[in-house]
Each structure stands twice: as structure tokens, then as C-alpha cells.
Amino acid sequence: LPNRRYFMSQLDRALRELHARRRQRLGIILIEIDRFTLINDTLGHTAGDDLLLQAAQRFAGVLEATEHLLARWGEDQCVALLYDVDPAAELRTLAAALHAARQEPFALRRHRVRIATRIGFTCIERGLRRPEEAVREADVALTVARRQPGTATVEYTPDLGGAAASLVNLEADLHLALERGEFALLFQPIFDLGAGRVAGVEALLRWRHPLEGILTPQRFLSIAEEAGTIVPITRWVIQQVCRLIGDWRSSLPRDADFFVSVNLSAAALRDPGLWDYVRRVLEAARVPPGYLKFELAERGLIENVSGARTVLAAFRNMGIELMLDDFGTGYSSLSYLQLLPFDYVKIDRPFANRAGSERANNAITAAVLQMTSSLGLRAVAEVVETEAAARSLAQLGCHLAQGFYFSAPLEAADALQLLRRSPTPATIVAAAPAAAEAPRAVSVADETQILEETPTMVLPETPTVVLEAMIDPEG
Ligand code: C2E
Ligand code: CA
Ligand code: CA
After folding, report:
1. Helix, strand, coil percentages in the chain from 3-state DSSP, rounded to 5
2. Ligand 3 center to 346 CA (angstroms)
3. How, if at all, do strands 471-473 and 378-382 pair?
4. What's phi and psi for 294, nearest 5 deg?
5. Can you tell me the distance from the alpha carbon of 33 to that of 423, in angstroms, rounded to the nearest whole number?
6. Three state DSSP letters for 29-43
7. pTM exceeds cut of 0.90
8. Which of 125, 234, 313, 449 has the greatest number of beta carbons closer than 10 A?
């Protein structure tokens, strides 16, 4: 496929022709393959490229009868320029045909993969526009389609502009966000179920966007990863956390034992200077490495296990413990536990969200905990939302737990308060029935509201389920 540059030059030409009335109308259709990164992550980049190629061939087939130019737009996007189409109705028909073209499963390696697509389009009839403006219209429509689950096609109309405008600029804004000091961290306590005290906290990133308000990582992390801004952002988080640990250490009793865990994207591991940066920042803040832990999700590690192993082993040797994040949501392959030097496994939502009886859930969780401990790892249950779950976990001997039941993410000062009160005699789960009140009494950042209002942001669809739905074994 031609690339973006070529497409833009042809679009520029077509727009001039339109202005000179040598053309009647232009259509721009932006097609996005949903969850393309998941396919890349699970089947590899070659499979991803192959998929895009096959999809493009089908799209070209659909557009055959119309004068058009099809090009690759982004990693998971194609764009089509249509010359002299009939009014918008035809673009809608074409969009429907493009959706229909991807319905047959694609053959990738030995898998049959089904994909979903999303389309934003615009119809341009008059006026002189710059090509960027014209594409932006299709992009705004696509953004709106992305925001409305269940809507596969959106046509651009001027009133869409306002709703989607700021979102479309997130990438540009990200570059300035660090300079402008718009990032902030919240800290979610992690409880030691046996000892009934706060063992540590997880640092969670927020972006106080000037127009959009407080954004959670789901909204901007993948953009930051693609745009490369993830590297300076990760460094910023690590620096903030190390400074904070230093402050907390001087403010807490001398023997206070706690940790702060930092989430590392796989993309951040590709920063060749990361190890040295961490070492320097710890030194500057006079913080022993044992106070810091890193959390990594298996998702991104799959692609480059050997590269990840080298960096992770170096951190491990420095004395920074590692947690495997989101266990139970992806492939949950035991091989990563063996290949990479993890100390903890974070089990995502141990009791919720699984079909099946309570007894079956209990049995599964018990088995996962058993396995974790046989491998010499410690378990952290996360997204624990109910007292029943917390109790069962304590009974099953789960070491650490985290979730809204215990506490939402807190501002640093509130998290420090909790650490100060620890160890508390009021064992949170293991013993006292009334103790459930304790963590709720902590003043919780307005964050809670945001998370509860839009639970989809924190409850992403379980990839396992998606994969099962997407990949039919051959035959
Ligand atoms: P995660 O590492 O799995 O973090 C836990 C997420 O679950 C957090 O969402 C937290 O607010 C939410 N959560 C905790 N307890 C509960 C609960 O009981 N119920 C529900 N529904 N949600 C709960 P958050 O802060 O939006 O972060 C989302 C993800 O973004 C994190 O998932 C993590 O993967 C990533 N992330 C956060 N901060 C950073 C960071 O500094 N760097 C990187 N690379 N990723 C980060
Ligand atoms: Ca995490
Ligand atoms: Ca997690």
C-alpha cells in the first residue's frame, strides 16, 4: 500500500481539483482494525502485517468499481480516498461493504482470526481545504465511533468537531504535559492480609488535562507508547516515587517497612538507559532499592522475552523486586513465571467476572494461589471489591490484597497517613468482622467518583475471552 505521505500528496491534488470544479465530490474513509495490537502481541508482528495486507486486499476488492486510492494510514488503519462518489449515501453503503468484507475469518499462521473494524468518513463537496483538515474530519468521525461501543460507522458532521477535538489532540498535548507539570500520581494501598497492615502502595498515574479533566492511563498510555513519550513519562514516575519514598522514610518511624510499586510498560523497557537512570535516582534520593518494586504485565513481555529478561534480571540484582501484573487476564502462561525473575504475582479479580459457581471460583483461586506458592512466589490479589472476596482470600492464605474494598487510590498525604497507622491492631479481614469500616474512613480522593462513574475504564474486557472469540482453531 502507498504510505501516508503519498496519500496526502494525492489528496492535496484532488482537493485543488475539487476547488477548480474539475471534480464534484471527494470521500475520505478511515478504516481501523479493532484490537490490532492484541493480534500483534499474541501472534507476532509478522502475523499483524499479514493481517493488514489481507484486509487491504479485501478492501481494495470492495472499492474496485469506484475510482479510489487506498493507503496505509496508521499501524492498524487504512485510508481510502474516493473520487467523485455520489452523495454521502454511497459512502455509507461503501462503509457497510467494507465492514462486510472483513467478516470471513482471516487465515494467519495456523489460526483463523476474526476482526472487527471501525470506520469514520467524510464527504467533501466544495471549498478549499488543506489535506490535513480533510483527513482530520474522517479522524474526528472515527474517534467518535471509537468512543461509542456498538457504533461501527460514523459520518463526519461539523457538530462532531467539538466533542472529539480535544481527544484528537491528546498526542500533541502529551508532548507538553510533562513540561507543564500536568502528571500526578495516586497511591493505592496494598494490604498484608495476615498482619492486617498496609504493606505498600502502588503508584498510579493520572494526567490532569487542562480541558479533559483527570485522565486515567487507559486514555493516554497507548498513545504515549506509540508516540515514544512513555520513556520520559516512566522516568518522571520513577523519580517522583523515589523522592516520595525518601520523604516518607524520614517522616515515618525508622523501622517502618513499606514499598512503592511502579508500573512499567513493556515499551518503557526498551529505554536502554532505564537501569542506569533508576540506579542514579535511587542514589540521589538515598533510597535503598528494596523500597521500590516494579509491576509488569505479561501482555507486552511476550514479544521480547529475552530482551525483557536481561533488563529485569539487572533490576532484580539491584534489589528491586518484580511483580507479574494482571495475572488471569491474558494468556496467563506459566512459562513467563519461569523465564522471568518475578517475586510476586498479582492476580486480577480473583473471584469476580468468571462464569461459574462460587465453589468453582473458590477452587480456581485456591489452585492459582497454590501454584504461586509452589513456584516460590508471593501472591497479591487485586481488584478486590467485596468483603466476601477479601475474607475468602485471607482464608486461602493469600499474602497481599488490594482493591476498592480496602481503599481506592489515594493522594500521597492520605497514603502516608495509612502507612503511619500501620500496623493496626484491627486486622482488616482475617479476624474482626467490623474492621471493614476502617479503610473506608480514610478520606478518598475525588478519583473514586470518576472510577465508579465509568467502570469500563478500569474494567477492561478480558483478553482471554476476546481471544477465544477471535481465534478459531483451523477447521
Ligand atoms: P493496574 O496496574 O492493573 O492497576 C490497577 C487498576 O485498577 C488501577 O486503575 C486502579 O485504580 C484500579 N482498581 C484498583 N482497585 C480496584 C477495584 O477494586 N475495582 C476496580 N474496578 N478497579 C480497581 P488505573 O489507575 O486506571 O490504572 C490502569 C492501568 O494503567 C494500570 O492497571 C496500569 O497497568 C496502568 N498504569 C497506571 N499507572 C501507570 C504508570 O505510572 N506507568 C505505566 N506504564 N502504567 C500505568
Ligand atoms: Ca499494576
Ligand atoms: Ca493489575
Report:
1. 50, 20, 30
2. 6
3. unpaired
4. -115, 140
5. 50
6. EEEEECCHHHHHHHH
7. no
8. 234
